[in-house]
UniProtKB/TrEMBL annotation:
InterPro entries referenced in this protein's UniProt entry, alphabetically: Cas12f1-like_TNB, Transposase
Lineage of source species: Bacteria, Bacillati, Bacillota, Bacilli, Bacillales
One GO BP annotation of this record: DNA recombination
Domain Cas12f1-like TNB: 262-329
Protein name: Uncharacterized protein
Signal peptide: none
């Protein structure tokens, strides 16, 4: 593994020199700032160089793509084998789900989670899109407003009741981290001054990886179940068009936002809705869902992020900020369905 990384790194350097060698080195923006203060940049600070993955923390992950049927699932002697390049004899696997019969394997990612190995198989297959429901009652519509603390608030003002999986195990994780740091400090050094990790240390790392993987699995499970339930209960689901990476940067929420899993949740809602013939409506990016008053339509010029209650200057309605936004999204969806002729006539119903 290590040698392989070295070879790839050298190849990348060579390519970099060939492509950029004639131009002066460009440094990352964050480094340029530090350079003004007298910081001397190293190779690591050069723009466009490959990133390193931590040998210890990153675990093991390997992806291989399908070319001309070199990835296959085979059954032999009552066992199932995964055939990937370099493993002509196949790797015995336990399939958690049957693969779709007319599916095409696109790629396989092998990953280590603690002591077990997982193979995620990406399959392309034509899934049955149910025909879109032709008439939708406004009462059978819901809208979800993204909420940083709890995934979403819906247009009935209900919160998702989303357990913060990473927070739940956070305490445990901190304890493990401490224990790792202590073990690292005490580790013996080899002749090159590199620490030699004890068996105990390695076991703690495995334990750590297992804990993190468990949290991620629990979260995905929650998102699957909830999106399944919503797409069963409602005929139309309205969400806002969020650029999550952008939001993460401008709010400096970074990690927290990505832990939240809303992006994943939206894509689950979308494909589940399509399968069930339900309407999945994304509000226009410039629709001011938080600034509008859901009661009278008045638009606030300014709404600070810290204002958790929406108080309308015009009709004096007061309600939770996220609930107000979700109601606006629902109204947006009602108009969208009205325009396309899918909304059931509110008078005749
Ligand atoms: Zn109002």
């Amino acid at each position: 593994m290590y040698n392989d990384a070295k070879i790839r790194f050298q190849a990348a350097i060579k390519k970099y020199n060939e492509t950029y060698g004639k131009r002066p080195l460009q440094y990352k923006k964050s480094v340029q700032k530090k350079m003004k203060a007298g910081y001397v940049p190293s190779l690591r600070d050069v723009k466009g160089l490959p990133k390193f993955h931590s040998k210890k923390q990153g675990g093991f992950s390997y992806t291989t793509n399908q070319t001309n049927g070199n990835i296959r699932i085979e059954s032999r002697d009552g066992a199932t084998f995964l055939r990937i390049p370099k493993f002509p004899e196949g790797i015995p696997v336990r399939l958690h789900r049957k693969l779709p019969a007319d599916g095409l394997v696109k790629k396989v990612t092998l990953k280590r989670e603690g002591t077990r190995y997982l193979a995620s198989i990406s399959v392309d297959y034509p899934f049955e899109k149910a025909p879109l429901k032709e008439t939708v009652l406004a009462a059978n519509m819901t809208a979800l407003d993204y909420s940083q603390s709890g995934l979403y608030v819906d247009s009935d003002g209900k919160k998702a009741g989303y357990p913060r999986f990473h927070e739940l195990i956070g305490k445990r994780q901190r304890r493990l981290n401490k224990s790792l740091a202590r073990k690292k400090e005490r580790a013996m050094k080899d002749e090159n001054g590199q620490p030699v990790y004890s068996k105990n240390y390695r076991q703690t790392v495995v334990h750590y990886q297992k804990t993190m993987a468990k949290a991620a699995n629990q979260r995905n499970d929650f998102l699957h179940k909830r999106s399944h339930q919503i797409t069963n209960d409602y005929d139309a689901i309205v969400v806002e068009d969020l650029d999550l990476t952008n939001l993460a940067q401008c709010l400096k929420l970074g990690k927290k936002l990505h832990d939240n899993g809303f992006g994943m949740f939206r894509s689950m809602l979308k494909y589940k809705a399509e399968r069930k013939g339900k309407h999945y409506i994304v509000a226009d990016r410039f629709f001011p869902s938080s600034k509008l008053c859901s009661a009278c339509g008045h638009k606030k010029e300014r709404l600070r992020l810290s204002e958790r209650t929406y108080a309308c200057e015009s009709c004096h309605a007061e309600l939770d900020r996220d609930h107000n936004a979700a109601l606006n999204l629902k109204n947006y969806g009602i108009h969208a369905l009205l325009d396309t002729g899918f909304l059931a006539d509110p008078v005749s119903n």
